[in-house]
Amino acid sequence: MSRVKDEVRKREARVESASGIGQEALRVPGILIASVIYSIGINMFLRPLHLYSGGFMGFAQLLTTLLRDFFGVNTGKLDLSGIFYYLFNLPAIVIAFRTMRKRFVVKSVLTVTCITALLTIVPIPAKPILEERIANCLVAGIMAGAGVGLSLLMGASDGGMDLIGMILVQKNGHFSVGKVNIAANCVLYGICLLLFDIPTVIYSLIYSVISSMMCDRVHIQNINSQVLIVTKLRDTEPMEIEIMGEMNRGLTRWEGKGSFTGEQETILMAVVNKQELHQLLVIVRSHDPAAFVMVDEGVGVEGHFLRKIT
Predict the structure, then answer these.
(1) Residue 61 has what pLDDT?
(2) Nearest-CA neighbor of 200 among 46, 82, 59, 80?
């Protein structure tokens, strides 16, 4: 057993070393693409409708509207939404710096900076691109949600409620980034309901729900999968060492016997997130191409379970 633990520790050290600066640099293009998708969705499809995005961006838009229309602050052609968005994110980044991995915080700062810059560059059409208002809401929600989800998939965040959501997910698996966004948006749109007309709030809510659903679809680290591996290998130790060492996931093993064949079998059980599922299957097939593998997605997990959301 001690030899197995030593082998696992060695593999974990090699994997941690291999996933350093080089691997993170490969994620930067993904972060840039996510920022572009998000910014286009907001500026070109949502803002021409005079609707409000969710989370910190929505609060930034709301504050800009209050200063301009209710307090008469003349900002000229300068849109303060991006600036307020950046300022709102500073406390969230400080919280993340204390609770999340440092490489995640660095990539999140990059994402927030890119989004802020792109929101000032991407033009806002004078009138909606699509004729139907609902169609613009759907496209904006899909693009913004995909952009947020992709940034999360790259191990970063666009800031705001997504950062807070990821902290809550890490502490309690019953949360999801999308659900946290919906809760925050209820507060935001409640304020909008007091200040603006009902259609503005309704269409903004439609956008928010679509965006949150799309985010959860793309952010597959949120989805846990239970995997049962039935193998006839005499010695499963090399497979177990590779799974535990390279994936940093625990395994449960018990011995079984085929009812029809009467042959002795080993059953391994692991719980991984959906993003890790392919890696696990590759490892299993490399050791036993004939292994019988069962996958159950969307399982709930209680107790000690490492939630790799970044």
Answers:
(1) 85
(2) 46
Residue at which a domain ends, from 176, 198, 219: 219
Are residues 69 and 174 both part of a single domain? yes
pLDDT at 221 > cutoff 80: no
CB 225 within 8 A of CB 271: yes
Q: Where are the alpha helices (DSSP H) in 100-197?
A: 102-121, 133-153, 161-171, 177-195
Q: What is the dihedral of CA 212, 195, 48, 62, to 10 degrees?
A: -70
Residues 117 and 33 in one domain: yes
Last residue of a domain, one of 179, 194, 219: 219
| Whether 182 contacts 190, CB under 8 Å | no
Counting beta carbons within 10 angstroms of the beta carbon of residue 104, is it exposed (0 to 12), middle (13 to 18) or buried (19 or more)?
buried
Residue 20 phi/psi, 5-degree rounding, is -85, -135
32-69 pLDDT, tens digit each? 999 999 999 998 999 899 888 878 888 888 888 888 77
Confidence of residue 302 (pLDDT cuts 50, 70, 90): low
CATH code, domain carrying 271 = 3.30.70.120
In a domain, 305, yes or no: no
Q: Alpha-carbon distance 137 to 144, whole Å?
A: 10
Mean pLDDT of 217-225: 69
Q: Are 141 and 180 within one domain?
A: yes
Q: What is the DSSP string of 179-196?
A: HHHHHHHHHHHHHHHHHS
Instruction: Report how far residue 127's alpha carbon sits from residue 130's, in angstroms, rounded to the nearest whole number.
Output: 9
Q: Identify the domain containing residue 37 by its residue range.
A: 18-219
